[in-house]
Amino acid sequence: MRIVLVEDNQSLAAGIENALRDQGHAVDHLADGVDGDEFLRHEVCDVAIIDINLPRLSGLDIVRRLRGRSNSTPVLLLTARGKTSERVAGLDAGADDYLVKPFAMDELVARLRALSRRRPQVAPQREAIGDLVYDRDRRLVTQDALPLDLPRRELALFEVLLDHRGRLIDKDSIANALYGAGTEVEPNAVELLVSRLRRKLEGSGVTIRNARGLGYMLDGA
Questions:
Q1: Please, what is the average pLDDT of the chain?
Q2: Which domains are assigned to the chain?
Q3: What is the pLDDT of residue 126?
Q4: Does residue 169 contact residue 161 with C-beta atoms inside 8 Å?
Q5: What is the rounded average pLDDT of the residues 205-210?
């Protein structure tokens, strides 16, 4: 998944980023409310994590603006406020869930998995392509009921291609989804990753097609 994190506490943000990247997700971090709102205005993500108390623009205002643009990206609000009325205010603003600080990273990851399943036009939890079955909740690819050995980055690439199944996705979009916007990535990093994944998919009835200069597409019956 591509996750946007808007959090001004640098140590907390670093902890969240590390935990999510260890899971193979791409994270774009903004430390300011106005910057977060501007980023979400122009970029597409799977889930947004937004702190309520932010410089220049509150998390509640970011969510209100997001929904005002008819953007239905799932939002998890982070708050140090435990009062029911304040949590209700966050949900009324358009957030999908909230988490009160301090929290366990395992709980954060579990809530993000749940929220990702609420994405508009999201694929089923279990999806078959070729001889493969992908379980989105467990993040597991199987072939003939046996797990396919995919390191986290290859698994993340498989998810991105599956989400765009039957459609071309360009290298820049893949890089943003895997590493986050603005991250310095070696020019051939995506090609090498595609090559490794393509070898793992041999004999599965699933192929990664390359349209030179346009991008990649996952194909399978």
A1: 87
A2: 2-116 (3.40.50.2300), 126-220 (1.10.10.10)
A3: 81
A4: yes
A5: 92
Phi, psi of 176 (to 5 degrees): -65, -40
pLDDT (tens digit per residue) in 9-19: 999 999 999 99
Give the whole-angstrom CA distance, residue 202 versus residue 71: 38
Count other Cβ atoms within 10 Å, centred on residue 23. Answer: 18
For residue 34, what is the DSSP state?
Answer: H
Q: Assign 3-state DSSP to the chain and report helix, strand, coil percentages, each to 5.
A: 40, 25, 35
The span from the CA of 9 to the CA of 31, in Å, is: 8
Helix (H, G, I), strand (E, B) or coil at 22: helix
Please determine, for residue 122, whether its predicted confidence score (pLDDT) is greater than 70: no
CA atoms within 13 A on the CB side of 62: 35
Question: Residue 156 and residue 139: Cα distance in Å, rounded?
Answer: 9
Cβ neighbours for 31, distance < 8 A, ≥ 6 positions apart: 6, 7, 8, 10, 13, 55
Residue 169 main-chain phi, psi, to 5 deg: -130, 130
Instruction: Give the CA distances from residue 179 to residues 60, 101, 118, 139, 194, in Å, rounded to whole numbers and listed in that order.
Output: 27, 26, 23, 18, 14
Ramachandran region of residue 95, left (φ > 0), alpha (ψ -120 to 50) or beta? beta
